[in-house]
Amino acid sequence: MVSEIQFHSPEERPIDPAQVRRLYETVTWGRGRDDDGVQAAIEATVAVGAWDGDKLVGFTRALSDGRYRAYVEDVMVDPDYRGNQIGERMVAALIEQLRDIEIVSLFCEPGRLTFYGRNGFAPSETQVMMHRRSDSSVS
Question: Whole-prediction pTM value?
């Protein structure tokens, strides 16, 4: 039942990297991550886990300088739990942790605008998103 889902930071309830990795495997952009890398990401960010008893059913995190900017990453909900507002509630819990940050940003697919809009996000004037991968073959 959705009302029983609990939302906690890693400081409140440790988040097992293997459970986060299981969630990464359910999304196309997060496959192939290892436990050591996931643990490092958890430790380096502000994070929230969504729990159904002992099962991690959602995870999100944000990179931040602690004052001016934060960038939301990795909003994931177990496929069996999607459609129950867990993602929205989890993002709200993350935003609460970031409440003193001047600007919180994220990138999303056009179809997710309404989802993030329910937590106060709005499209920016910026029309360009750029990436650089460490394995870039650009010379």
Answer: 0.87
The three-class DSSP label of residue 4 is helix
Q: Which of the 8 DSSP states describes residue 8?
A: E
Cβ(33)–Cβ(50) under 8 Å? no
Three-class SS of residue 36? helix
Q: What is the spatial distance between Cα 120 and Cα 116, in angstroms, rounded to a whole number?
A: 7
Q: Please write the tens of the pLDDT for every residue from 4-30.
A: 999 999 999 999 999 999 999 999 888
Contact yes or no for 71/106 (Cβ under 8 A): yes
Q: Which two tokens stand for residue 102?
A: 């001047």
Domains present along the chain, CATH in parentheses: 2-117 (3.40.630.30)
CB 38 within 8 A of CB 47: no
